[in-house]
């Protein structure tokens, strides 16, 4: 599913991806509108801290697969599977320091722990998403604010795609209403429930 298109060139809307996640993966999918910033920021971060996935529709991809701002011309889907928080102090009980990286702490499995306080909004370099997109086999750490800004500026269908001879089905209302500022919160169903 390169670049979020089917073989026929159809573009997936957030609603389409939500249905696909529920039907194919059997998970709960919730569309969250308004972008990754306020008022959704803390909810998105708590979702990731709880171990759930975040599907980011059509962030613009730069040459190194990181988010950029090209109004949607280089649009891709990305999945975030975790978050790295820059906190001012050592986390409370329930966290262990990484044996290879001093100052990096992980929650201890099966041990109750209090999530650390979230960095203040607008703190540069304090929040990174552990993310991956379809053209790369590797996860990367992306600055949260950079992803947020990229997701919010998806407004235009790429002129080069419009003239490449393929048929594209753009979401109703275009990129702005079908993709811009939207994310998908995914929760895998717990087999024990």
Automatic annotation (TrEMBL):
GO biological process entries? proteolysis
- Reactions catalysed, as given in the entry: N-terminal N(alpha)-acetyl-L-methionyl-L-glutamyl-[protein] + H2O = N-terminal L-glutamyl-[protein] + N-acetyl-L-methionine; N-terminal N(alpha)-acetyl-L-cysteinyl-L-aspartyl-[protein] + H2O = N-terminal L-aspartyl-[protein] + N-acetyl-L-cysteine; N-terminal N(alpha)-acetyl-L-cysteinyl-L-glutamyl-[protein] + H2O = N-terminal L-glutamyl-[protein] + N-acetyl-L-cysteine; N-terminal N(alpha)-acetyl-L-methionyl-L-aspartyl-[protein] + H2O = N-terminal L-aspartyl-[protein] + N-acetyl-L-methionine
Alphabetical UniProt keywords? Aminopeptidase, Hydrolase, Protease
GO terms, molecular function: aminopeptidase activity
PANTHER family xrefs: ACTIN MATURATION PROTEASE, UPF0692 PROTEIN C19ORF54
Q: Which family does it belong to?
A: Belongs to the ACTMAP family.
Official protein name in the record? Actin maturation protease
């Amino acid at each position: 599913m390169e670049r979020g298109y089917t073989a026929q060139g159809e573009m997936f809307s957030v609603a389409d991806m939500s249905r696909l996640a529920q039907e194919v993966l059997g998970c709960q999918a919730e569309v969250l509108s308004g972008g990754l910033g306020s008022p959704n920021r803390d909810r998105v971060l708590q979702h990731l801290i709880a171990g759930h996935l975040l599907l980011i529709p059509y962030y613009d991809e730069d040459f190194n697969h990181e988010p950029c701002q090209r109004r949607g011309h280089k649009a891709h889907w990305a999945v975030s599977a975790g978050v790295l928080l820059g906190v001012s102090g050592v986390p409370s009980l329930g966290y262990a320091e990484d044996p290879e990286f001093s100052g990096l702490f992980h929650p201890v499995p099966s041990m109750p722990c209090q999530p650390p306080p979230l960095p203040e909004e607008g703190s540069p370099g304090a929040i990174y998403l552990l993310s991956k997109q379809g053209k790369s086999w590797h996860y990367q750490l992306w600055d949260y604010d950079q992803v947020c800004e990229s997701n919010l500026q998806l407004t235009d269908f790429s002129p080069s795609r419009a003239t490449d001879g393929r048929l594209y089905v753009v979401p109703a209302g275009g990129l702005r209403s079908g993709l811009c500022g939207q994310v998908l919160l995914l929760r895998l169903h717990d087999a024990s429930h």
